[in-house]
Amino acid sequence: MGSLSGPIHTFPPSLDRRPGNKQVIVRSNLEAQPSSSSFSDNSAALTVRERARRAVEIAREKERERKEEVNSKIASQKAISIILRREAMKAVIEKKKSKGSKRLLPQTVLEALHERITALRWESALKVFELLREQLWYRPNPGTYVKLIVMLGKCKQPEKAHALFLAMIDEGCTANTESYTALLSAYGRSGCFDEAFSLLEQMKKMPNCKPDVFTYSILIKSCLHAFAFDKAQFLLDDMEGQGIKPNTITYNTLIDAYGKAQKFAEMERVLMEMLQDGGCEPDVWTMNSTIRAFGGSGQIEMMERCYEKFQSAGIQPNIMTFNVLLDSYGKADEYKKMSAVMEYMQKYHFSWTIVTYNIVIDAFGRAGDLRQMEYLFRLMRSERIKPSCVTLCSLVKAYGQAGSAEKIAGVLRFIENSDVTLDIVFFNCLVDAYGMMGCFSEMKGVLEMMERKGCKPDKVTYRTMIKAYRLAGMTNHAKELLHFVANDEGTQLQRGKPDFN
């Protein structure tokens, strides 16, 4: 790949993404393998000094691993201590909430509130906040209200966000641009654009709450998420009328949205406006959005040209850039170029994330290279990166395509021994894999598994099963299941499983 420094090779000799880690050999079955004679020649050429040096290195490696194990145990003990302390704190909070205590320690309540806000547990957060307001030491803080309003916006609770905004004013807090923007964002995230635009007009009339570029950027992003491109353009024109210039975040939001919608002409127009604006310089987010747009649509050459232009402009890639390149090359079956990206990441010590692993695992799984896929999955676990549902879906799909039911059973055993939270997408993927292999007993068993896990089948689940039955010529089963789904469209997900006996 011309956009990456160095020649294009097959998979790099190692994927050591952190300095000092042990080297890991990764080679693809899709590429030509080097002959084994070169390895035997190298082994024969080892001198006594080289063997002694290697023995020392092995001893050092064992000592390093021993220290890492000791440190891991210490870290685990500290983690357990923190968890126990937090659980005790939760117990105190729950107990005091029922008794209405007004003498809790500030740190205890504030930590509990922060934890719930971060986890987007809005109902529990509001209960803790009510407890906070009952404390003798409580003083209204606009910052706390803003955090809660933002959380409610993310949880699609605009009415409760508005109620909290009014409560903030009633407690004597002065509303400012930040608090109004938080409320406007809550309306925008839920698609309540009438309320959001009305609030924007109110802000224009208030001397101390004038909308700023951040206010407009947030509302523009909400409009673009709802594909309301006309409203986004109206806001851009309104910004210009108010004398507010877009910043890099505004331009990046537009570029990303137009790219995802494959509106390439509009995306390039915004990019040109950004380049002509002396106050806004493209950054790595601009590069990532642009190459994702072209790479995601299969325009690999255009993606590479954009990557080269951004690099020549002095913009350095980050891990997200490489994830985009890996994903684009993988979906385009460009495994040689995918290897070059991996080599570049190794050379400059870019640590892989769960997204990186999911991308390469999925790519090799779709290519049928199960050995490489399994190796990367083991490597992922060895680096203590917890597999997600996306990872498991890739494994199940690959094994389904290969007709390996026993391998899928191995994935299910792994799940039973882990704390991975499964979603409907995984179960639908599992149903599809079993149906593809003609394992209809196992496919029906997925419904029982879903019931145990508290996950209800959806239309995709049943449609996938119907398709599998029809392809296998089991028309009676397909008709019975189709009748089951159509019988009560509004409540079939609440009912029991269909009986094929």
Structure, described:
The protein is an all-alpha fold and 501 residues long. It has 24 helices and no strands. It has helices spanning 37-44, 48-99, 106-118, 122-133, 142-154, 158-170, 177-189, 193-205, 213-225, 229-241, 248-260, 264-276, 284-296, 300-312, 319-331, 335-347, 354-366, 370-382, 389-402, 405-416, 424-437, 440-453, 459-471, 475-487.
End-to-end distance: 57 Å
**Overall mean pLDDT:** 83
**Total helix count?**
24
Which consecutive residue ranges, at least 5 long each, have pLDDT under 50?
1-46
Secondary-structure class: mainly alpha
Q: Which band does the percent of strand residues land in?
A: under 5%
Largest sheet: none
- Computed Rg: 28 Å
Beta-strand segment tally:
0
Judging from the principal axes of the Cα atoms, what is the shape?
A: globular
Classify the helix fraction into a percent range.
55-70%
Q: How would you spell out the order of helices and strands?
A: HHHHHHHHHHHHHHHHHHHHHHHH
Oligomeric form: single chain
Question: Can you give keywords for this protein?
Answer:
single chain, 501 residues, mainly alpha, globular, disordered N terminus, repeat
Summed up:
It contains 24 helices and no strands. The protein has helices at 37-44, 48-99, 106-118, 122-133, 142-154, 158-170, 177-189, 193-205, 213-225, 229-241, 248-260, 264-276, 284-296, 300-312, 319-331, 335-347, 354-366, 370-382, 389-402, 405-416, 424-437, 440-453, 459-471, 475-487. It is globular and about 70 Å long.
